[in-house]
């Protein structure tokens, strides 16, 4: 070996020794942290009768926000937050493993959102439909549920909004996920593709790409994009529009990557549970409202929000399907229901609205 090669080997060995030593220190610290989480569990179990709330969303976001603020690189803020997300997920699983229901089968973006929110130690349960997720959490069979609510290209997921009208569940968190769609198949190329399966939202997100590259292929909506991937395993003339996770799980070829029409295509998911999330300092509140069906009704309904200086980040209207109200409105505002300005505004709103249901106050997504 040349002299140069030799000194390179030595330099490499020295840095690797340093890395080995650091890894042991990190391991010790992580183990110490995990023992602290066990102590926390012990304290919580002692302090609370009945159901113990091991999962504390407001504390988790406080930990992640603090880490991001303290970070000085070279890893970027998102990356360090992701690492700490996983450490906390493992610590929480030691207190008690959490279960989260998602729109299955395995490999959907909803599963990816559940893991992004809770970390990899959460036990995910695949369910076939959005209303099944609500029922699973309502019955207590799962601790939490994760449901898609809106996509930046395609708009609202109406099934989710409709489920909130009759469900007693609360929104306890939100997750935003960049959604990259892939064209998956057992076929080697596009030439033989006659059918394209996916969730209707995913088909819509790739409409222009499909018009251009597969203009004659039939588009068939199914219950989820992972279900589409599962279907094409036994249909060589078909392709699925789905995520990379589905390609791995069902061992399909990626015939085309990132086929979404909007490169910034993002889906927002909601985390649902039985308990409210306490204030975290940076929160959102989701409301369900109905107003009198008369001129200026909606304006009067929203006036208290403006009067209290609250920012509205979203408003959606849906036919109520109940016959009591014509339309209901889903409104998101910044702030927690326990913040004085929000609670004052809600009191005024209650007098104006035919219906006011606070669907939940929850921390603004950190990751
Ligand atoms: O602080 C707590 O209440 C904990 O249970 C500890 C911890 C953590 O690992 O930091 C774990 C789970 C909770 O959701 C929040 C934080």
UniProtKB/TrEMBL annotation:
| Any one GO BP annotation for this protein | chorismate metabolic process
ACT domain residues: 286-363
Name the keywords, alphabetized: Amino-acid biosynthesis, Aromatic amino acid biosynthesis, Cytoplasm, Isomerase, Lyase, Multifunctional enzyme, Phenylalanine biosynthesis
Annotated EC: 4.2.1.51, 5.4.99.5
Molecular-function GO term, any one: prephenate dehydratase activity
Gene Ontology CC annotation, any one:
cytoplasm
Q: Which residues does the UniProt record annotate as the domain Chorismate mutase?
A: 6-99
Locate the site labelled Essential for prephenate dehydratase activity. 267
Enumerate the PROSITE patterns for this protein: ACT, CHORISMATE_MUT_2, PREPHENATE_DEHYDR_1, PREPHENATE_DEHYDR_2, PREPHENATE_DEHYDR_3
Subcellular location(s) per record:
Cytoplasm
Write one Pfam family the protein is assigned to.
Answer: PDT
Q: In which pathway does it act?
A: Amino-acid biosynthesis; L-phenylalanine biosynthesis; phenylpyruvate from prephenate: step 1/1; Metabolic intermediate biosynthesis; prephenate biosynthesis; prephenate from chorismate: step 1/1
Q: Which reaction does it catalyse?
A: chorismate = prephenate; prephenate + H(+) = 3-phenylpyruvate + CO2 + H2O
Task: Give the main localization category.
Answer: cytoplasm
Concerning InterPro entries, the annotation shows: ACT-like_dom_sf, ACT_dom, Chor_mutase/pphenate_deHydtase, Chorismate_II_sf, CM_dom_sf, CM_II_prokaryot, G/b/e-P-prot_chorismate_mutase, Preph_deHydtase
Q: Which SUPFAM superfamilies match?
A: ACT-like (SSF55021), Chorismate mutase II (SSF48600), Periplasmic binding protein-like II (SSF53850)
* Domain Prephenate dehydratase span(s) in chain numbering: 99-274
Q: Relate the protein's function as given in its record.
A: Catalyzes the Claisen rearrangement of chorismate to prephenate and the decarboxylation/dehydration of prephenate to phenylpyruvate.
Stated name of the protein: Bifunctional chorismate mutase/prephenate dehydratase
């Amino acid at each position: 070996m040349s002299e140069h090669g030799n000194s390179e080997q030595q330099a490499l060995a020295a840095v690797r020794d340093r890395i080995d030593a650091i890894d042991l220190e990190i391991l010790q610290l992580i183990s110490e942290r995990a023992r602290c989480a066990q102590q926390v569990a012990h304290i919580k179990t002692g302090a609370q009768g009945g159901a113990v709330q091991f999962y504390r969303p407001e504390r988790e976001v406080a930990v992640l926000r603090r880490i991001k603020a303290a970070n000085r690189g070279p890893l970027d803020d998102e990356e360090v937050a992701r690492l700490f997300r996983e450490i906390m997920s493992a610590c929480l699983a030691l207190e008690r493993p959490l279960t989260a229901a998602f729109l299955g089968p395995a490999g959907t973006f909803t599963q990816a959102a559940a893991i992004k929110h809770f970390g990899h130690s959460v036990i995910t349960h695949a369910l076939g439909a959005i209303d099944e997720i609500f029922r699973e959490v309502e019955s207590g069979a799962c601790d939490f549920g994760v449901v898609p609510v809106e996509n930046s290209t395609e708009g609202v997921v109406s099934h989710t909004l409709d489920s909130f009208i009759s469900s007693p569940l609360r929104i306890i968190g939100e997750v935003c996920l960049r959604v990259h769609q892939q064209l998956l198949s057992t076929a080697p190329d596009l030439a033989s593709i006659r059918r394209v399966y996916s969730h209707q939202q995913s088909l819509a997100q790739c409409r222009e790409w499909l018009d251009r590259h597969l203009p004659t292929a039939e588009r068939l909506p199914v219950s989820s994009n992972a279900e589409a991937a599962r279907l094409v395993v036994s249909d060589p003339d078909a392709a699925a529009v789905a995520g990379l996770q589905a390609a791995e799980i069902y061992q399909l070829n990626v015939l085309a990557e990132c086929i979404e029409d909007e490169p910034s295509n993002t889906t927002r998911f909601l985390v649902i549970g039985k308990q409210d999330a306490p204030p975290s300092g940076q929160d959102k509140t989701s409301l369900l409202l109905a107003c009198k069906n008369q001129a200026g009704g909606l304006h009067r309904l929203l006036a208290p929000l403006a009067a209290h200086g609250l920012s509205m980040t979203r408003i959606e209207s849906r036919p109520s399907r109940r016959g009591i109200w014509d339309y209901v409105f889903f409104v998101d505002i910044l702030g927690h229901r326990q913040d004085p300005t929000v609670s004052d505004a809600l009191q005024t709103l209650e007098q104006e609205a035919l219906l006011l249901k606070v669907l939940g106050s929850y921390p603004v997504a950190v990751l």
